[in-house]
What we know:
By secondary structure, the chain is mainly α. It is 86% helix and 0% strand. It has 7 helices and no strands. α4 runs parallel beside α6, α4 (24-48) packs antiparallel against α7 (124-152) and α5 runs antiparallel to α6. The chain is elongated and about 50 Å long. The mean pLDDT is 93.
Amino acid sequence: MVIAxxxxxxxxLLAEVWILxxxxxxxxxxxxxxxxxxxxxxxxxxxxxxxxxxRALAIVSREVGIGxxxxxxxxxxxxxxxxxxxxNLEAAAVVGMTLMGISVMATLVGGALPFIFRLLxxxxxxxxxxxxxxxxxxxxxxLYFGIARMVMGL
Length: 154
């Protein structure tokens, strides 16, 4: 319900650069999947005792580094695919940059939220994935269109 108005507000942009519409599901899926995976790694570590909450900053930093590497890989592949489908280098760059950005943001959110939930005495395993997916879906779509407007000059 939050994403629909964001997309509706992009009618002019999407009419001009229609290929961007095809990659909205990829942006949404990437954020949720990457964030949930980071949360799973941290939650498992907390449950087994392999992760010490006192090292939360170091662990989240490591996750963000992994997200950056994954983002570059995903972004590069997506850039190539988007260009192959739409023959529009600017639109392809938007897709690639968004996947890089959402991968970093997803690992930050996914890595940090289990520590925050634990601090609040909420079982991270019960709330992390749905919360992370929802937050990153909204953030991902907003990031996507923000980058698109910047790159396309609209």
